[in-house]
Design goal:
This protein is of the alpha/beta class. The chain is 41% helix and 18% strand. It is an enzyme of class 2 (transferase).
């Protein structure tokens, strides 16, 4: 069954009485090259079990099934389940699980459904839940790679370097846990219905070793969030807004300078090693 033909998709959806849901961010691919390129770019092969989120009508799912040993697709919209039963009928290595990925025990599900394999994620993510889904996937700590389609602006933030306008707390989170890169862009015309924004496919290779030594990840990310909470503020003033109840401004300035940073530096100029050093010193002072 052709899963990327606009005419074919419309006929398929009409035959099942399906209507698009804006709240679920449903946009189906009508460019046959895109799912194939996503699957190829993910690097998965017969040694991998793949978790897909939001399979839609199964275009990417089918492409993944031809490469991976096993594919588990999690679909929230129950109205798509009978459609997927039709479109994936010939894909014997695919299992569709009804449910909400944000309520799923991801690590347990992956290990139980695909035992003995290496694990990867490959998905066209609903744009309204990109950040919480990526956070949950990273924190599951079972995947070697995560390849996702997201809004181009989000992709730029994921890959942004210190000192750039796109660099922020989410950039630090992604780059602390993984090495991200943009594979290619996907125009609105590649979807039905076409979204209002350009999309990008990003691949993340999860790190076995972190880019800096962090003793307390909770403190590290607390410092990162504080540094970006008000971008126009200096780092010292940003930290004072969060930690001022326990350390005065002079003490915070001393900590910042003690890390080899300018007293007037802003959070957006710090890389992961600088944030790690600052979090370590701050954590020691607050003990």
């Amino acid at each position: 069954m052709e899963l990327t033909s606009e005419r074919g998709i419309k006929e398929l959806l009409n035959s099942h009485g399906f209507r698009f849901s804006k709240s679920m961010g449903q946009n189906f691919l009508v460019d046959a090259g895109v799912p194939e390129n996503i699957a190829a770019g993910s690097g998965v092969d017969g040694s991998f079990g793949v978790l897909e989120i939001g399979p839609g009508i199964g275009a990417l799912t089918a492409a993944l099934s031809r490469r991976a040993a096993r594919v588990v697709a999690v679909e929230l919209d129950n109205k798509l389940l009978p459609i997927l039963s039709d479109t994936l009928a010939d894909c014997g290595n695919v299992k569709v699980i009804p449910g909400d990925i944000l309520k799923l025990d991801i690590a347990r599900t992956v290990r139980e459904e695909m035992p003995g394999l290496r694990y990867a994620v490959c998905a066209n993510l609903p744009y309204n839940i990109t950040t919480p889904v990526l956070t949950a996937l990273v924190e599951a700590r079972v995947f070697e790679t995560i390849t996702v389609m997201v809004q181009r602006e989000v992709a730029r933030r994921m890959c942004a370097a210190p000192g750039t306008s796109d660099y922020g707390a989410f950039s630090v989170f992604v780059q602390y846990h993984a090495s991200p890169g943009i594979l290619f862009d996907v125009p609105p015309s590649s979807f039905l219905p076409p979204p209002k924004v350009t999309s990008s496919v990003v691949t993340m290779a999860l790190r076995r070793e972190k880019p800096a030594e962090v003793a307390d990840e909770a403190m590290f990310f607390r410092v990162v969030r504080a540094a970006f909470a008000q971008r126009r503020k200096t780092l010292v003033n940003s930290l004072e807004s969060v930690f001022g109840g326990r350390l005065n401004k002079d003490a915070l300035k001393e900590l910042v300078v003690g890390c080899g940073l300018d007293a007037l530096a802003r959070g957006e100029t710090l890389g992961i090693p600088e944030f790690a050093a600052l979090a370590r010193k701050l954590g020691d002072r607050l003990k």
